[in-house]
Amino acid sequence: MGKEHIHFVTGRLAEPALRDLLSRLAPEIGFDYSIGVMPITVAALMTPDWIARRLQVPPEATQVMLPGYCTGEAQTLQRLGIPVVWGPRDVRQLPEYFGRPGGRPESYGQYDIEIIAEVNHAPRLSLQQLLAHARQLDSEGADVIDIGCEPRAVWSGVGECVSALVKEGIRVSIDSLNPREIEPAVRAGAELVLSVNSSNRREALSWDCEVVAIPDEPANLDTLEETVALLESENKRFRIDPILEPIGFGFAASLERYIEVRRRFPEAEMMMGIGNLTEMTDADSAPINVLLLAICQELGVRSVLTTQVINWARTSVRECDLARRLVYHSCNFRTPPKHLEPKLVMLRDEKRLEFGVQQLAALAAQIKDNNYRIFAENGALHLLGGGVHLTNSDPFILFDDLQSLEPANLDASHAFYLGYELAKAVTALTLGKNYRQDEALDWGFLTVPEQGHRERKLKVRRKREEPRG
């Protein structure tokens, strides 16, 4: 069989960029190509029906690739007799589409770190509130739901709470040092106790579950060794948590303790309570979680305890779920944790995709209609339309410049739309993100997809036409 021949369909606006890119990409990957330029400026305005009436496919083509912007049903294109696929929305994303650079291997996605997610101050919640919270944490990737009890108090409802969670198929741990709370929780089905030290280790021997051994004081590993020795002598299942300290309270020394505990107990299961750092540090939690799970992966710490109390850490469970896959792949396949998990790149994009000043000028010269196209590149906003090419870093000045031209199509609805898009474009410039008109900015796994402008207008029109009763 010969090379695959892909027939790329595009509009006049993207044709120069597509030709330039394919001239370099096709020889590298090893396919032949042709380009079908539709009689329309912007590819986003094409539909499969519209394309089907105009497309001429060369006989040597083995596949037709439509721009990702093209929406609608593809049945009308079946008459072509060859496969039709949708490529990326932006022509500059074609290298990634074809696996350049990198791309995630099929082996990606495995993990061996367990996420324990705590429901803080559980006794303050009603049973329904607690169940709802636990279900949410479970859906976000938590393996075990930890019931956080109050110090210096005994929660009489702990057994009922644990029993309700277990009935829903949720794995449960109990976070308490008080045997009067722990024992009813274990009888109700809790499978893990956080935590055990010299204050309750004797009682722990009768609990039919695994326990977490901790030092009496974080810096005193001798007390931890005494607890571990007792648990081992009675064949009690346990894991060790040397206690991670917040920054300013011995953070570096606590990391050293994890290394020391692994040296002393090379085969022991271990746990790290990472909430002490994510909740107590003025920084977004995602990169902190990645680094802490990387430490866990390298040390063989196979469970982490996390919380989602403060707002900047409110997605920690999902972050840990993504991070544990990233660090597992990196450590087990000996590859840097790069170009593998784009969902964890949230504040800034991996790289900026820009047309450049010359190409934007060429695009502006081709546009004949009065629709406006917005670009955000190299610290400036660009507004392109028929006979219009405005540039400024300030969206208010840019809009004033547009108004000074007295365009006939700038009604209230259009002005609102341009304001909305310019706000997104300024955000992209500020943070170093890519802006694509009519698309949501990429916030990693936090991205909320947006409907295109045409789809939104059609939805509003249909709603207005609905009969009112």
CATH topology of the largest domain: TIM Barrel
Spatially, the strands of the biggest sheet line up as 5-6-7-8-9-10-11-12
Name the beta content range: 15-25%
Class from secondary-structure proportions: alpha/beta
Main beta sheet, described? 8 strands, parallel, barrel
Mean pLDDT: 90
Task: Give me the CATH superfamily of the largest domain.
Answer: Dihydropteroate synthase-like
Radius of gyration: 29 Å
Low-confidence stretches: none
CATH-level-2 architecture of the largest domain: Alpha-Beta Barrel
Shape category: elongated
The total domain count is 3
Q: What is the count of β-strands?
A: 15
Descriptive overview:
- This protein is an alpha/beta fold and 469 residues long.
- It folds into 3 domains: 5-97, 3-Layer(aba) Sandwich (Rossmann fold), CATH 3.40.50; 114-338, Dihydropteroate synthase-like (TIM Barrel, Alpha-Beta Barrel); 357-463, no CATH class.
- It is built from 16 helices and 15 strands.
- The strands form 3 sheets. It has an 8-stranded parallel β-barrel with strand order 5-6-7-8-9-10-11-12, surrounded by 5 helices. Strands 2-1-3-4 form a 4-stranded parallel β-sheet, with helices on one face.
- Helix 5 (158-167) runs parallel beside helix 6 and helix 11 crosses helix 12.
- The radius of gyration is 29 Å and the shape is elongated.
- The model has no long low-confidence stretch (mean pLDDT 90).
